Amino acid sequence: MIKRKKVIILTMTILLMGICFFPIIKGLDFNSKPIELVKKTVDVKEWTSLYYINVESNQPWWNLLFSVDILHDQFMYRNQLKSGLNHHVLVLQDRRRDPAVLYYIDEKCNRIILKEMGEVNIGNPQTLIDFISYAKEQYPANRYHLAFWSHSNAWFEICTDATNNKNKLIPDELNQALLETGGVNLLSFIGCCLMGSLEVAYEVRDNCEVYVASESMGNGNDWYGMIDNLCDILNNNISMSNIEIGETIVDLICHNPNEFRDTMTISAIRTDKMNQLVDSIQDLSCYLIENDDSCYHNFLAARNQTKDFYFVNNTNFFSPYKYGYSYLLDVYDFIEQYLTIEKDETIKKILEKIKYNLSETIISECHGINQTGSHGLSIFYSRNDMLSTYANYKLDFTKDTYWDDLLNNHKEKTKSSSMIHNNISTYLEHFNAQIKTTYLFFLEDRFQFLFNLLSF
Q1: 305, 445, 307, 299: which is closest to 383 by C-alpha?
Q2: Helix, strand, coil percentages in the chain from 3-state DSSP, rounded to 5
Q3: Total-model pTM
């Protein structure tokens, strides 16, 4: 009898437990594939660094160099990247011929494979979002550093995946990825050309605190042999502010003893000062548009004396857009050159304001002896068909300023200058061959001289 009671009690207990847990069991999807979760006990460190490495590109020479892992690793990362007591290091690396891999780099520079990703679209912002989200969840830290290593081209492209229809990550997508994942403290562009771009720094101003990049086409040379030192800076200086970290990184690259130091450029930018800088550039744009006829020639004269960097993209690398090439002007050098020429007191006052805001925005900069005139931030300048792309690229800078409208005014003036050449040729059709040859040669020579000045 006692045994029967125990059996009855046990049976009722099981039934009650089944009723209680039925909603939970019902909610499970038994047909779905099991998700493999690796539960870790990871200490919250001061820094987690995320290296977003793209060895695929839309540039054939880049793919030729980096289609295999050997040169790429020897050049930048082998035995350089490392974690530490206060620093996690994760790498998402996409290669052209091999599958993408997610690594953790330990204290002895060993690669620990966290996941073999297969083919990923490195130009898709969702890939970046997933990477940042994973790192923050699995390797939490007080501060986060996101580093790009890829072919890049200022505001036009940050990284391009050649095996996925040349899909490229653009500034708006980068900012949205940072916004969705809570942002980062330090954003750096290692081995990325022309990323000392005012337009890009302004785009991410609300989602990163310090922006580190090069104005020039560095191709990673500036950072060669310095990656382990960068890891040491983050690991050994937990009391440093983000601004001090940026300044220390610039100092590190500035004193890099390698053979590329004469051509290097590097700067650290305070993004919380970008709004004031861009507001003052908007003041300049508005005034120059309102007084375009009287201000154009001084503006152009200052531009022609300004340190610039050639803006490269797929279309104009071998064949320029009509009416000339596009450039990135060093903002500070442009202001300096403009101040030496301009007599208009209103313009001079605005220029001084821009100069002051630049000094507040640029934490630190350094450049080699062959980069005189580089001061840390560049701005796009063009008078060709590339302007339509620039104006419609979802850039906050072109939304918040009339800079692109000012450049478009200059483009129209350049078109007018080009029409003079065509009118001269048409008019001289009425002369005989000898006179035409003599005068056309003289006039075209003089015109070409003037046109070169205007188009430089």
Answers
A1: 299
A2: 50, 20, 30
A3: 0.80
